[in-house]
Amino acid sequence: MQAATTTSGACQGYSQAERFNATRRLSEALVASLSDADATIQSMPDASPAKWHLAHTTWFFETFLLRDHLPGYARFDERWPFLFNSYYEAEGARHARAARGLLSRPSLDEILDWRRHVDQAMQALLDRPDVSALVELGIHHEQQHQELLLTDIKHALWCNPLGPAFADPIPVAPTERDAPDWYEHPGGIARIGHDGAGFAFDNEGPSHRVLLEPFALAGGLVSNRDWAAFIADGGYRTASLWLSDGWAWVNAEGVSAPMYWRGDEAFTLSGWLARDPDAPVTHISYYEADAFASWAGMRLPTEFEWEAIGQSHDASGGQQLDVGASVNPVPSNALFGGTWQWTRSAYLPYPRFRPANGAVGEYNGKFMSGQFVLRGASCATARGHSRSSYRNFFYPHQRWQFTGLRLAKDV
Amino acid sequence: MQAATTTSGACQGYSQAERFNATRRLSEALVASLSDADATIQSMPDASPAKWHLAHTTWFFETFLLRDHLPGYARFDERWPFLFNSYYEAEGARHARAARGLLSRPSLDEILDWRRHVDQAMQALLDRPDVSALVELGIHHEQQHQELLLTDIKHALWCNPLGPAFADPIPVAPTERDAPDWYEHPGGIARIGHDGAGFAFDNEGPSHRVLLEPFALAGGLVSNRDWAAFIADGGYRTASLWLSDGWAWVNAEGVSAPMYWRGDEAFTLSGWLARDPDAPVTHISYYEADAFASWAGMRLPTEFEWEAIGQSHDASGGQQLDVGASVNPVPSNALFGGTWQWTRSAYLPYPRFRPANGAVGEYNGKFMSGQFVLRGASCATARGHSRSSYRNFFYPHQRWQFTGLRLAKDV
Amino acid sequence: MQAATTTSGACQGYSQAERFNATRRLSEALVASLSDADATIQSMPDASPAKWHLAHTTWFFETFLLRDHLPGYARFDERWPFLFNSYYEAEGARHARAARGLLSRPSLDEILDWRRHVDQAMQALLDRPDVSALVELGIHHEQQHQELLLTDIKHALWCNPLGPAFADPIPVAPTERDAPDWYEHPGGIARIGHDGAGFAFDNEGPSHRVLLEPFALAGGLVSNRDWAAFIADGGYRTASLWLSDGWAWVNAEGVSAPMYWRGDEAFTLSGWLARDPDAPVTHISYYEADAFASWAGMRLPTEFEWEAIGQSHDASGGQQLDVGASVNPVPSNALFGGTWQWTRSAYLPYPRFRPANGAVGEYNGKFMSGQFVLRGASCATARGHSRSSYRNFFYPHQRWQFTGLRLAKDV
Amino acid sequence: MQAATTTSGACQGYSQAERFNATRRLSEALVASLSDADATIQSMPDASPAKWHLAHTTWFFETFLLRDHLPGYARFDERWPFLFNSYYEAEGARHARAARGLLSRPSLDEILDWRRHVDQAMQALLDRPDVSALVELGIHHEQQHQELLLTDIKHALWCNPLGPAFADPIPVAPTERDAPDWYEHPGGIARIGHDGAGFAFDNEGPSHRVLLEPFALAGGLVSNRDWAAFIADGGYRTASLWLSDGWAWVNAEGVSAPMYWRGDEAFTLSGWLARDPDAPVTHISYYEADAFASWAGMRLPTEFEWEAIGQSHDASGGQQLDVGASVNPVPSNALFGGTWQWTRSAYLPYPRFRPANGAVGEYNGKFMSGQFVLRGASCATARGHSRSSYRNFFYPHQRWQFTGLRLAKDV
């Protein structure tokens, strides 16, 4: 089943065991081209080493599944949980986040050995009803880290003046699909949030009603060509287009273009390449997305508006991650895929939301201040991972993810 | 009309001229006990010198009313706009915010002279229909700065190891009013936002519909006694109660109590005084308010829930600012007054919100990221200034304002 | 004795009482033109408010003389030592240095009252042999703070965009004295350090021998004209002229001229004035002095070379502080006065140096790392305060003092 | 000549070619136990990756020897000088020092290939009179980086909670040599500095005379046992023992013991090991050395005093680096070796010192501000590298080198 080893593995119609194993294999496929040193470095506190992602996801299964539910399981190394816990306060003290890049040991090979050890032990727990939800959480957790692994290694390689490539580019067939200029919505009461069928993160519920005003959502993502027009029109130098915090950020950081732009090129996982004007713009902050929308005389959608449209679209469509390889957004008419889409909604709890008990309750709820919601999926999102109710979230200044935007307007 | 000189001046039934003059007199009454040096110092970048508040509000009238609408008016001093513009990009460069405390010149007396000069010139514009809305904005703008002046000088005096008093405490009669334990609301579609009668800031509109789930809002504010129980129960040391950003803030700043607490005392505008256990807790951050609500097994209200209840309450009631004097929250059953109330709503634009054109369009809209909404009014809010649709906003870590909380719960 | 109230007061031939009283009066004369607010502000952590200098010098007499040696003396205010101790660890905890500018209370008038109270009590101790050395230390300590008061208020007023003047300029007669182009010295063993007659700080001793190579010291100070040539020749852009730390400093701070330069003007205690090309350059860091000397193909003198020449010069000559007024360096041929002169000597203990016991032992010795020695005296040094053995010292990046340079060369 | 491949290579009696090749081999021996990831990480801006040291020393030979003196030589990779220039302004822009740890490419293997390429090309230049001095400089330059490589990788491994070992400890025979309690010196005129025979760095000259007072230098280094007594006596909590900058450093950094101490253990290149009380204390800052000397009622020597004694000692004796292996100070009576010894002398130019022309002139002179001189040699100094005139230098707060102290006193 060679293909499965490099597919995203969360597709419907497969058993949990198949999906678990496929997801684990994809993570390893993602680092196939990396040296031990590549997998060790950390280029900023927001990012983590590739090796750390491989280890942390393994720690998740070892801790919440094997330790808690497999009698007699002995940890592979008692000293490693301290190194690879991310932010679970209930799991105790941990290595400082900003110092993850100093861990030359354990080596990449040792981490891969640990993964094999854990995977073998995990087979006993797969498709077992009592832990099925936790395993599912672990699979989707690892998919999130697959995307972070790609964006983090992209940032690290960009910091190297040699601009090394992560992997050769993969030709992606353009998505030929009819899409209207605008998806119109008449407003009214919409049902928002996950309704309970299939896996979802706790922050996607409870399902509830939201009252919408009439609006329209653009049929396509804002492109590099659109963005170049914004720059040419002085977008980054016009204070009146910007949120106050955004204007301070532009000036403090000297921002004048999306991250990774240099002349007519952009840094990609395949090194410095010419930009495609028709491809969606990516690596922009919320501040930039909001300023662009102001410049265009429109606005960003709310996450509820987006979801109301998204419910009738195929969440597995568009450009998403299928195999371990270099990814970069290409032109597409799909609602999902390519880049995540900033919304103007702050990341806040839905009515009657309650986090789960225990350490896994720290998964989402505690991040509900200061961040904005993104919807859709990106070229680095494992296909099958996202949903119309899926809520991604980042701080408004962050832009090392594959972030982009789709405009909205009142009608 | 001595009384008017120290009343808040925005009450209904008075002419605009009466309200303008009363507001201007109240600002001056607030600094009556301050020396030139007291009025000059700045204790942190978030705060401004008292003198600066007197000057900035005067700059507002001189710029947007006298310069723009009174032919032949000559600025009192051409060099001062650079010093006293706050954040209006459209009005050009300005003195660095963090360096406001270095301006020993112009002196407090010179600023008071400027105020008299501007007030005299302003008389020709009061109650004139074409500029009436701008004058009204200026009055409410000055009232906002009255509250900031009080909270800023409180912070500055607190930084002095001598703990000097701003003024003697004023006895405040307890508000005797029946209030239920909980205000219950059945949910449904509520109309939110200012409906157009009387003054409101642009961020309070447009009026629109919001769908609410059934909820209840507490009849009283959380008290110092309640807060002491939270502390005694380890509230500040229990990670699971806190938002992630909040927990980082608690640890980075070493927070273990509300601002201004010391043993059984609290610093007030009358110096260090014993705390009244029945008075509402104040000077807490959003993070603290949220953690307290989690500890209490409840939550903060949304701003929409708060407004749905607030629409049937007297916005001029409760403990609010009437005269230039020391203020400190006292026990009360009123919905408004005492302390501002944190909501769990991020400060975001209402549907179809558009900022005004020109410099005054920078008043509110550009701050719509990263902050949370507070509702109600505090003991330092000029009576008549607030409304049920009023949206105050601060960053989640800020707590030098008179901030408190009122719990909510699902029903 | 009106004249004495504004003379520097350390001249020979006067009694200690006369010198004490004259020194105290001069300090007060220096603040005669300052408002309470002017005297309160602090523009950077290195500087202190004028009021603080008046208070700290008074604290010195109250603590080390009145408290320790005048039976029955009661402190003027028991809470003030915490505010006005500078750095004496042996005297306990103290107010944070960077927060001195927040002390609007006590007011300038209260500090002046305190000074009168202390001065009156001090009369009983003046010219008393057992405390004579401590009183002398207090007088010279206060003279040091007079110079700091002037340089600190200069910096604070410069931070104000209005550029207010401290006082009107005082015409200074040019010093007409013959000076050679170079003072030559044949080298050999020189005796360095204070020999015991008259007051000196502990760091000026013990007197000891130093072996000098033949050298020459320039007859004049480097002038503004000389410095303009350095700038015109790209001095601030030529890495090879600079010490490594200096080059980092130039680039981090964006330095391209001496402090207080703006076009053809310089900020002075009388506001912005045209620069005199013949006046000595001032407000330069050690890094700049060293780079200039490299550019000129010469070097800075060692402190021992300077002293070997200085021993035959009049330490009370040249432009030094006589009255409370605006000061600014003027052309002069004197060895002393005008500006302090950077030497290439690090500030280190002389052979067999031992600090005194007790708190006053903290006066000098504990600063002997990281700083460089300056010799001579400046226009802001109380005349009579300096000596040929006098060792002033600052960090190499500091330049808000009246610092300049005199070149040296090997012969 | 296997032995030579792991000896320090600067011994007398060998040809330049032999010494060049031995030095190059030793550097490679030092990284024999490191993975690519180990050799890539950088744990603080003061430190550099092991790989970087290997590359930078190679860049030195490629640039100043092969490029400048071997006609037809083509750089191995034109892009690498940007990465591996350290601080030579004359050689143009370069990669930011603090970002050296992000260079996962080129890999360790690629750097080793580069070394072979350069070494091969270098053979044509060895023992050639016209470039002999430059080659000699390159050899000694590489020896300095060998010591930095060891101290930098020690720091990096210490940052890893696993505390991995660099290599197994090597048994070192205790140095049995008679040493007096004190080396006494009668004072008088001493000749200081390198006299011209054999290699020396430019900062060791010109040779000149210095007048010394009578003094004594301790026969042994301060030991771990001595230091424990200092700690037990409250040394780190007694302000009066410390320089002002040192006391600020102790409090800001929370320092309470030498670097790498933990209970009765210390981190070494062989991981966490029990401390030998008789071994010299190491990894202390100048501030700590100075405070210890004050506590002991003595002082640090000047660099001139140290050299006056050192001239009659064997600079190749004591514990110094012979082979690529784990090193850690052991008890010894030798004057050289074990740990570098802080002196109380600031690092300043000797009389008539002039840096060389061109880029190599940046080697030493530009660092002559803010640092203190250390004398002797450490267990990580390649044997044969140091001399009695050798001047090592670091900032007073730095302590990741093998730094220690030897007391002095006046007699």
UniProtKB/TrEMBL annotation, chains A, B, C, D:
Residues 20-147 form the DinB-like domain. One of its GO terms (biological process) is ergothioneine biosynthetic process. It holds the Pfam family DinB_2. Pathway: Amino-acid biosynthesis; ergothioneine biosynthesis. InterPro entries: CTDL_fold, DinB-like, DinB/YfiT-like, EgtB, Sulfatase_Mod_Factor_Kinase, SUMF_dom, SUMF_sf. It comes from the Bacteria. Keywords: Iron, Oxidoreductase. Residues 180-308 form the Sulfatase-modifying factor enzyme-like domain. This is Ergothioneine biosynthesis protein EgtB.
